[in-house]
Amino acid sequence: MLIIYNIFEVPSRKELSELYRDPTKPKHYDSIVQELFTRAHNNEPLSLAEELFIGGIIEQLRNKDGKRAHKIEDFEGCKNYHFRSRYLKYVNDLNGHREIMDYNGPVSKPQKEKDVAFLQKTYEEWEAYLENKSTGFGLINYVAQELKYQLKELDKYTLRLQIGSRYKDYLRKILFLHSKYIYLLVKEFYEELGTNEEQIEIQGEEILVDGFTYVHTMFRHFAAHIKKHQIKKSYHFDENIGFKEVPDFLLNALHNFKTLKLPLNKRHLYFSFNDTPYAIWFRPFKKSLPGNIQNEYLRVQTFYPIENTREYTKLSTMTLLYSNTPFAFYVNW
Q1: Cα 252 to chain center, whole Å?
Q2: Full-model pTM
């Protein structure tokens, strides 16, 4: 999907990501950077993908003395980039006690103190923003609902292990900041999609994939660094799927299954991608529509790479049906 401006076309989020990493810098690179920099400097609207792209470039710009030409915090339109970049940099050490590296080498102590203070302020503001947001069916509501569940699990975990208040507060901060990171990631995906959900008809069943699906999945199965209080959950560093690619990967799996015209199990779908097995779980879901109408769906409840013995045993009794894509699906004949 290309966003068309008066003078040129700005690439999609995937294209921007690839362009950022492309060492050859194609001829249209400079014009894209100039346009997005101008809009960021003038505090004009940017999509989250555009903000992520130009924010990283702004931080690398240097003046003739080799010093940073700009401070990212001076760009109001890049505030989400500011958070996302600092969160990822400090994700395993939010208080900056250990050495922190960026593309220029070790981060200085004054810069670490500044970044840590910024993350603390973000945590406090996000906590206040999420208050009373757990009721509803929007993305922010799904984030607040999942966070509420995670905080209850954290309470059980810290009580059981008699963990002190200081470390518990630290774990709590991890959960809040990770919820904001997931929120922005899913929002970025839906910004480009132009809608906040997708529906796929498979064998007469309407499959619903929405913000709930991604928030639930990313929090519980693709967030290993926050797993301390979730010892029963499966986590996986998955070479098949980058964290940002989870939405696209899940949709590709469903669309590939649809083309095979196989019977749909209304509880789960097992498949393999590059020899790694995955599970998608469905749950009936009713949604109210205008005109006092209620539609029934099978909502994708969660999705994860399979690791536990029980599910592996179940797969061993099934037949793996290959397609002309990297996806293969487990079926019972």
Answers
A1: 16
A2: 0.89
